[in-house]
């Protein structure tokens, strides 16, 4: 049983590695300053990312790509948490995400849904001008339209 679990974990890791390695072009998204987004984010076109965001590959665990990925994306951004929060309040509706709830706090929480998926965005300040952002996407079990 342990060997089977190790094989499954290795397969998942390999799939994630291949997914992130396939991103070869710069993907234009309306970042905070309107600049290109790093290729690692190109597999997730339904989510906006601020300029100069840096994906934390060790903490990111996502399967799939395009509009059907699930899992958690973790990245750092060279902006304070308030600015990142305002970015998502502005940009998520542009990508057809519908706001369910937002809470601005020490660790801000935002929940959106779109078609068959829901996302939660957690934004935490890690310094004067840096934030840690975790975006978790799950299937929308409620099928809210």
Describe the structure.
Helices cover 21% and strands 36% of the residues. The chain is α+β, with helices and mostly antiparallel strands. The protein has a single domain (2-139), classed as TATA-Binding Protein. Strands 3, 4, 5, 6, 7, 8 and 9 form a 7-stranded antiparallel sheet that branches. Strands 1-2 form a two-stranded antiparallel sheet. Strand 8 and strand 9 (130-139) form a beta hairpin. The longest helix is centred in the N-terminal third of the chain and has 20 residues, at 2-21. The model is unreliable at 9-35 (pLDDT under 50).
Q: What distance lies between the first and last C-alpha atoms, to the nearest angstrom?
A: 41 Å
User: So what's the CATH class?
Assistant: Alpha Beta
The number of helical segments is 2
CATH architecture: 2-Layer Sandwich
H/E element order: HEEEEEHEEEE
Main beta sheet strand tally, sense and closure:
7 strands, antiparallel
Q: Could you please say which CATH topology applies here? A: TATA-Binding Protein
- What structural category characterises the helix and strand content? alpha+beta
Overall mean pLDDT score?
79
The low-confidence parts are: 9-35
Count structural domains. 1
How much is the radius of gyration in Å? 15 Å
The total strand number stands at 9
Shape: globular
Measured by DSSP, the beta-strand proportion falls in 35-45%
Helix content: 10-25%
């Amino acid at each position: 049983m342990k060997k089977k679990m190790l094989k499954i974990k290795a397969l998942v890791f390999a799939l994630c590695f291949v997914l992130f390695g396939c991103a070869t072009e710069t993907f234009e998204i309306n970042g905070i300053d309107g600049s290109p987004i790093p290729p690692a984010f190109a597999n997730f076109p339904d989510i906006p990312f601020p300029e100069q965001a840096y994906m934390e590959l060790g903490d990111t665990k996502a399967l799939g790509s395009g509009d059907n990925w699930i899992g958690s994306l973790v990245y750092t951004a060279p902006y304070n948490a308030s600015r990142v929060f305002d970015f998502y309040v502005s940009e998520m509706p542009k990508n057809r995400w519908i706001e369910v709830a937002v809470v601005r706090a020490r660790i801000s929480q935002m929940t959106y849904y779109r078609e068959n998926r829901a996302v939660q965005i957690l934004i935490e300040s890690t310094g004067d001008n840096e934030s840690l952002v975790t975006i978790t996407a799950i299937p929308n079990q409620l099928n809210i339209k």
